[in-house]
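Course exercise 7: structure representation. Students receive a sequence record and must write out the corresponding structure in token form. The form below is the worked example handed out in class, using Leucine-rich glioma-inactivated protein 1 (494 residues). Read each field label carefully; the graders check that inputs and outputs are placed in the correct fields and that the protein name is recorded exactly as given.

STUDENT ID: A-19
EXERCISE PROTEIN: Leucine-rich glioma-inactivated protein 1
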Amino acid sequence: MGYPGRAQGGWMLLVWVAAVSLLFAEGRRVRPPRCPVGCTCTKDNALCENVRSVPHTFPSDVVSLGGCTSLIFLILLDKSPFHSFRSFVKSGFNEIVGASFVHTPALQLLLFTANTLDFIDEDAFLGLPHLEYLFIENNRIASISPYAFRGLKSLIHLSLAYNNLETLPKDVFKGMEALTKVDLRGNNLICDCKLKWLVEWIHQTNATLDQIYCSGPPIYQGKKINDLLPHSFDCMTAEFASYQSLKFESISVGAFTFGDDQYIQDIDILKIRKPNDIETFMIDGESFFVIADSSKAGSTTVYKWNGNGFYSHQSLHPWFRDTDVEHLEIGNKPHLILSSSSQRPVVYQWNRSQKLFERRTDIPDMEDVFSVKHFKVKGELFICLTRFIGDSKVMRWDGAMFKEVQTFPSRGSMVFQPVSIGNWQYAILGSDYSLTQVYQWDTERGQFVPSQELNIQAPRAFSMVSIDNRVFLLASSFKGKTQIYEHLLIDLSN
Ligand SMILES: *[C@@H]1O[C@H](CO)[C@@H](O)[C@H](O)[C@H]1NC(C)=O
Ligand SMILES: *[C@@H]1O[C@H](CO)[C@@H](O)[C@H](O)[C@H]1NC(C)=O
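STUDENT ANSWER:
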């Protein structure tokens, strides 16, 4: 069967109602159906002009014949010089409203072929438990209620071919257990997360679908929807949602466990005036910690646990006003990166035989780095370097040195913190003069992309804590309230 072209539709509405396959019980008297106003009826069909809705009187008469098992509503727009498109739309018959067919419960087949239907309402086919064939073809259907087909338990064949559908509401075919054939050809389906459910449905249903193609987005344009795999849709996204404010200022924040309870520890700004950095780590089963010393003649110092207490083990890098020290492993060997306000960051490597850190290299073109934090993506080592004014940077270890990957304008930044949550990798760049920027790692690009802004007064530290399968981001604030955000996953296909 060919589909009449959309453009040729004229502007006179003809409702062609044909009763086919009338099976009359032997000996029963055939009573012709009462013909609705505006229609011309013969024994098996009716032709209606200018009706503004589905006629109610006619079908109930047909059904009352008892033997009628199917009806075809062939709704056609014919060419007519007397009716403009606009006046037709105003007539109101551009949607199938709810419960249009409650008077015809015996219907087994419905066919709409028109040029103007654009919406199918909730419960449009309510009260049709025997309907097996539903054709809504060659219309302008652009939108369907998620409950449009509710109650169609016996429907075998559904066609929405040649409409303007860009998407279909999730689970619109739910409960239609008898479906064996669905025709969605000739629409403009956009294969994005909203349509992921359809791809899943195609994979698990027993019904067959005619071959259909994606009209977008660009990466899927022209691809066969039937060939797409549900897991090729990346529909999970995440955000930090404000959860709680604590009524105090802080320069550092961390979480610790005591018994079965989680606590959050803030280091109050009244107790520590100068933010100095402490790192603890183990080497070959021995415990160490290191303190960066930002005073003028001070030396960053490594301390070692000797069984009774921590004792000074090695002095590193005197006179350089170190602002931060980061412990990390490069090629499975312990390293320290010291950043200072007077020179470029320096990388130290642990010498196993001497049991001392030795200067290995420095990080070029990066004077006045406030802090260095490391993270790993797929086994590759990266560092975030914070600068107060200028550019903060992300660098990657190439086997011999750190090389720049990306630059981030910094305006009063004292923290650039990498944060890993499951498969999500973030870098959070605080600012004293504007909003904190959250960047998310884009695996395909191998770079961070902006993902969110957070309003925190003078942030100084970020840290993660997991409680009962929920993940929280703690944000210390030097001037305002310490903020707690919850990391929430959002499924765009829902
Ligand atoms: C598909 O058909 C099989 C065999 O008749 C049946 O067991 C299964 O439940 C059907 N699946 C769906 C989703 O209807
Ligand atoms: C460790 O120090 C020893 C003695 O100074 C030196 O011979 C050796 O090359 C150093 N090892 C490394 C890996 O630098």
